[in-house]
Structures are given as C-alpha cells and as structure tokens.
Amino acid sequence: MIQPTRKKELNYYILTMGCQMNVYDSEVLAGHLENMEYSSTEEQEKADVFVINTCAVRKKAEEKVHSRLGKLKILKKEKPEMLMVLWGCMVQQGGTARKMAERFPFLDIIGGPHSLGRFPELLEKAPFSSRTIIDIEPEGEREGLPVKRGEGVSAWVPISHGCDNYCTYCIVPYVRGPEKSRLPGEIIKEITELAREGYREITLLGQNVNSYGKDLEEDIGFAQLLEVLDETGRLQRIRFMTSQPRDFSTNMVEVIAAGEKICEHFHLPLQAGSNKILQKMNRGYTKEKYLQLVHTIRKLIPECSITTDIIVGFPGETEDDFQESIEVLQQVRFDAAFTFVYSPRSGTKAAEMEDQVSLEEKKRRIVTINKVQNNISLEENLKLLGYQQEILVEGKSKTDQNIYTGRTRTNKIVHFSTEEDLTGRLVNLEIVEAKPWTLTGKLLDNNISF
Q: In CA terms, which of 97, 256, 299, 434 is 20 to 30 Å from 37?
C-alpha cells in the first residue's frame, strides 16, 4: 500500500518590539499563521515565516531593526524559501517602507499596523512576487481577526486604536492614525470569551483609554465600560493602560474605587514636571492639575500604587526644568517610573524645535533621575515588609522550578517559593524582602483560591 506523502511542517517566528499594542498585533499575526497551519518555533533557523514587528517611538528601536536585518541577510541567503516580513509602526512612517525595501531587498513583505486583516493575502502572494510587497494603507479591518495569545493567565484587549493627542514628541498618531473606539459589545464579547477560556486577568489597551467612546454614537465612556466589565463572571482582575492625565475624571476614580475586580494601579505618564516643557509637549495639563489628580486618587483609594513615564532632555529643557521633574518625583513618590531620553522623531514638531539638549546632558539627567526614583521605589516597597498581599500567580521562574512569580493588585512583582504548581491561582503572601523593582513573599497556609 502506498503511503500518502507527509505534508511538510511549517513554522513561524515572530520578534516583537515596542509597546503592549504591538504585542497584541503580534498575537493577531500569530493567529493568522496558526489558521494557515503554521506552528510557532523558538528557533529562528527553523522558521518558514520570520516576522519582525517594529516600533517607531524611539530611534534606538529602529537601530535594532537595522542591526537585526543585517544579520538576517545571511539566514535568508542560506534559506531563500523563508518568507521575511517587516511589520509595524516603523514602516508606516512616510517613505520608510520604500527605503527599507531598497536597503534590504531580501524582505518579502513590508506591512503597517493597519494591514493586519490583509496579512494572509500578502503571505500567499509573496512567494510569487519578484519584488518586496508593500502594504502601508492608512486604514484596515481590525474586528473579527484571529488571535493566538501567549501562554499565561493574563490577556491584552484593545478598546481603541490610534491617537488624537498629537504630543509634539510622539510619532504614534502619524503611524497608527486617529483614535477609533471599538464597539462596547465587541469588547464585552471578547472579554467574556477570555474569561470562559480560563484567563483570570485582562488589561485594557489604548493610546489613551480615558478618551474611549468619544467617537461612538453610543453614549458610553471609559468609566461606564469599566463598570460593565467589572461584572464579568470568572474574571478576577481588570487593568488598563495608558491613561492621559488630562482626561482622567474624578468619576473614573470613583468607579475604580467601587469596583471589585478593577485593580488599584494607576499608570499616569507625567513626562515632565515643568509647566513650560509640558506646554511645549502639548500634554494638555499643568503640573498643578497633575498633582491634584494624584491627590484625588490617593484620597479615594489610599492603598493604590501610581507609576509614571518621564522624558528627560526634551528640547529647551533647562537644568531648572529638569529639577522640577525631580521635585515632582519626590513629592508624588511614584511606586515606579519608566524613564526615557528624548529621541527626535522625524515628522513630529519637537524634532524641528530649537535648543536641542546634548546627548551628554541627556545621559547625565537620566542617570540622576533613575537614582532618585530607585531610592523612592525601594523606600515604598520596604513599607510592605511584614504585610499580607494578594497575588495572582503568573507562573514558574525560568531559572528555578520552585520559584513562582505573580503580581499584587497594585502591579508589584512578587517572587515566592512553593513545590505546588499554583499558576492562575490567587494566593496570600507575607512580604519578607523588598527591592526597588521586585518583592519576595512567603506563602501563607490555607489561603489559596481558584
């Protein structure tokens, strides 16, 4: 009897750079590939489709792409049938896609974030094309696309795409387009299904979640959406990011305070402590308004955590302006701050501003502000020593099978020892050690829930 020829197993490899929205987009790309009977591989040499999902927020991210493509040229030469895909925000910038195709002619597909729905079609055409296929159309379908989520207990769920803020340093509105809110029914449906599948925590994503619903005919805002999602059965935690302080209302804080599943963690990007710099950034709020928001949050939710983003070296930032940022850090006492050196992005207003700060001065300021914030983070974490915290266990440590990692409701990372697999469970720990970015806990008896 003649045995049928076994179909060759096809593999894909996705390298994701940038924000959580990029992570979600990569999950959609993976969903398409899985539907086309490709399997994920962690060995790039075994890939039949190699995808780099790019970021355009900072110059360093683009430099990493160029460096990686330089190395992949050798792999493509050794394996010419491999389909090489360059995706994401970086190539959506004006003229970039064409330049990348000319510099790296071995690329088979170049596609922007709006082309997710057309990815299978592009993939089918690529083997028969004599040149790089480029798809950077400004619009595309986002609903109903397949998603292959990563392993774990948490899932990302976009509630909007794009941005209308046009901060002068940011390229995102130009590459992801104007803000477009998803219909609440679609969001609720997706999250209900995720809870049914066993996901215990979801993070709502948007460039500015606070402005959700402003473009919809239905009278619904972010606060109302949170209230509805808080009633989703089987779900244990709801997070969200990112919040624009300008649009964060007292009503939103009240909803979060009253919510059962909405976590008490606020990521509020400050970006600068100087009103002069905030105005140049087009952030839409003053230092005083930001501090008043922090006061309101801590008054209504005393046990919350607040984290932030800070940019140093923005054009025109003097030493006095920089010291104002330091003063806000010391006044607010953020649980953590993600700090960045200002990176000029071609096409943004800030890139054309005068008084660009020298790289040497930017480096000095980033070291200084990190030292200040690390000390604050450690002091805030030390306050938790001896106290009990509820942890959602995310999984095992990659280096020690008896060490598990989870997060508090306030988004603090906690490591603890146990011989039992507690992934996806809520456990109570006593905090026994504190570092600036992580905590160590001791598992308490008889306190595990599903």
A: 97
- 374-420 pLDDT, tens digit per residue, is 999 999 999 999 999 999 999 998 778 889 999 999 999 999 999 89
pLDDT above 70 (res 191): yes
Q: What is the pLDDT of residues 9-44, one digit of tens each?
A: 999 999 999 999 999 999 999 999 999 999 999 999
Those residues with Cβ within 8 angstroms of residue 274's Cβ, 6 or more apart along the chain or in another chain: 287, 317, 320, 321, 322, 324, 325
Q: On the CB side of 69, how many CA atoms lie within 13 Å of its CA? A: 24
Do 111 and 234 fall into the same domain?
Answer: no
Helix (H) or strand (E) holding 393: strand 388-396
Give the whole-angstrom CA distance, residue 121 versus residue 443. 51
CA distance 401 to 419: 8
Q: How many domains does the chain have?
A: 3
Secondary element (H or E) of residue 430: strand 426-434
Distance CA 102, CA 99 (A): 5
Domain co-membership, 366 together with 410: no
Q: What is the rounded distance in angstroms from the CA atom of residue 310 to the CA atom of residue 209?
A: 19
Q: Give the whole-number percent of the chain exceeding pLDDT 90.
A: 91
- Three-state SS at 138: coil
Handedness of CA 18, 19, 23, 24 (dihedral sign): negative
Whether the Cβ atoms of residue 281 and residue 169 lie closer than 8 Å to each other: yes
Alpha helices, DSSP H, located in 46-94? 59-78, 89-92
pLDDT at 6 over 70: no
* C-alpha closest to that of 366 among 328, 326, 422: 326
What is the Cα 390 distance to its own chain's centre?
Answer: 24
- Nearest C-alpha neighbor of 261 from the set 197, 201, 187: 201
Same domain as 246, residue 392: no
With beta carbons less than 8 A apart as the criterion, state whether 252 and 225 touch. no
Question: Residue 128 pairs with which residues in a beta bridge?
Answer: none
Cβ density class 301-330: b for 16+ within 10 Å, e for less = beebbbbbebbbbbbebeeebbebbbebbe
- What letters, b where the CB count within 10 A reaches 16 and e where it falls short, cover 366-384? bebbeebbeebbeebbeeb
Which phi and psi (to 5°) does residue 158 adopt? -65, 135
